[in-house]
Amino acid sequence: MSGPVAVVGGTGPEGRGLALRWARAGVHIIIGSREEQRARHAAAEIQAQCGGNARVEGAENSVAVAQADVVMLTVPFAGQAELLKKLKPAFRPNAVVIDATVPLAAEVGGRATRTLGVWQGSAAQQTAELVPPGVAVVAAFHNVSHTLLEGDGPVDCDVIVCTDHEPARAVAFELARKISGVRPVDGGKLENARIVEQITALLIAINIRAKRQSAGIRITGLDAWVERPRRD
Ligand SMILES: NC(=O)c1ccc[n+]([C@@H]2O[C@H](COP(=O)([O-])OP(=O)(O)OC[C@H]3O[C@@H](n4cnc5c(N)ncnc54)[C@H](OP(=O)(O)O)[C@@H]3O)[C@@H](O)[C@H]2O)c1
Predict the structure, then answer these.
(1) Of the four, 10, 64, 86, 177, which is 20 to 30 A from 80 by CA?
(2) Which atom of ligand 1 is nearest the CA belonging to 15?
């Protein structure tokens, strides 16, 4: 992976946190927003936080998507489908979309500790239905809190990576490994995203009871193979 990563919704806390960690690791980042000015402003702030040789730009979402082979999707579930329909013509052929969207019930007036039923099975499977043929969808980064990402220290969390496309899984693994402390775990097919998305609602419930914002997950009992996805 050598080109830029477009972070759609990168003005929000989750996208910003991921962008910050990757920019520090030397990844060229294009922050995407519905408003170009908002994207540029967020990009300038992230650039200032990173300093040095980091390369962070801002662009309207479709411009960002058109410039990148890897697109990180960090928007609320309520806006996901409409946004993807608008972005559809902008995707590069064979792009990889990494989706961290969690369909929280809070977005329709329900509780943040519950998820909505999604007809396709999960938010990530909905994304797979809405992107052009040839674009691969990976579900990942749902269980990493933005409060950990925006800090400087190691992030104590596994990232479960679900997809039906092995080369795309390798891209998500590479990005996960760029965040200190994060271990990518092969979570199998994209359909397993529904479980990973629901874990975020559980983590929110745990955070509320523990009065924290930092709960994450670790999968135990695994050998190193989980860290080496097949590339076929
Ligand atoms: N926050 C976390 O710790 C965390 C952890 C794991 C997963 N997630 C998931 O990651 C996603 C982003 O989380 P977040 O907390 O960063 O969310 P957020 O702040 O609510 O939204 C992120 C960005 O999405 C854009 N956006 C908002 N409403 C939109 C709409 N209707 N259509 C298109 N774009 C819209 C906004 O950017 P512009 O206004 O600039 O376009 C906003 O800054 C969510 O699905 C969340 O469930 C979050």
Answers:
(1) 177
(2) 16
